[in-house]
Specification:
Blueprint lengths: L6 H10 L8 E4 H5 L3 H7 L3 E5 L3 H12 L6 E3 L6 H6 L2 E5 L5 H6 L2 E3 L5 H42 L6 H11 L1 H8 L22 H23 L4 H23 L14 H19 L13 H12 L1 H13 L1
Helix pairs in contact: 3-4, 7-9, 7-10, 7-11, 8-9, 8-11, 9-12, 10-11, 10-13, 10-14, 11-12, 11-13, 11-14
Length: 328
Amino acid sequence: MITGDNIVTAKAVARRIGILKDDTMAINGDELAALSDEELAANITNYSVFARVSPDDKVRIIKAWQSLGQKVTITGDSIKDSDALSIADIGCVLGDNGAEIAKGNADVIISNHSYMSIVNAIKDSRGIFENIQKAVKYLLSCNISELILYFAGLLIFKMPPLLSVQLLWINLLTDSTPALSLCTEKAEADVMDKPPTALKGKIFDKETFFFIFLEALFMSAIALISYNLGVSKAVGQTMTFLTLGLIQILHSYNIKSRHSLFKTDFKSNKFMNYSSILIVFIIMFLSLTPAGAVFGLTILTAKQFFTAVGLALTILPYCEIIKLFIKR
């Protein structure tokens, strides 16, 4: 809390709303002026309330936090706040009440007079960032699994487990719509409980890439098993087509939430549900009717059909185990 009020009032308010705690202190402008910039930077984390401060004091406080590598947001609305708003990483001004020079130096102008809008904006932006991560993770894991499947099939069976047209059709069905659906997810309930994401220009860390590869490896292995169980080339390709298509749709629901699938709110994304039902229907229709012949598929028997479906369902417990491992 940085305020022009006297220190007694500032401390009383700060204690009431939880800013001033037993392990932090309050300091007034005169005491602040007695500290050098180096001393202030060294002790800045000990202070949670600054009272009777001048515009220059605000600038010093911001620079002290920035010297520790911290990102600083400051709120203000008067001409006196313009310098602080300018040097802060993010300057926030109340739109209607703020002075024009303050608005000019601000990064964010809050038009509805509510600082709660900042919290809502952070929540929404974290949700958007997580959705980007989910969509990219889904696309990477699915496409890497298709690459592994194709080349492993050539090495093991001396032929690709899927024809080019079959692989393209899988891509058309299972890449675009699920990825778009993941982008429309609402922010998860606990998104504000997570620490902020470091501004390093990275969507994923090395650990996440490792788990993406594990998921891709598992999906490709299951698809290869499905192909191997086919009694002929055509049956093997059809079973692989069905298994790979279903496993990727199921995987989109694994990625839908960081938490267990059993704690996921399936009603939150109707577009995802309806599109997934349509895609599953198309994949099954092509695997069980003569229409699949257009793509080089054959009609599966009941045993072959349920074997392929059963193999696809294994992605659910596999990803649950991975989530549990990451959580622990």
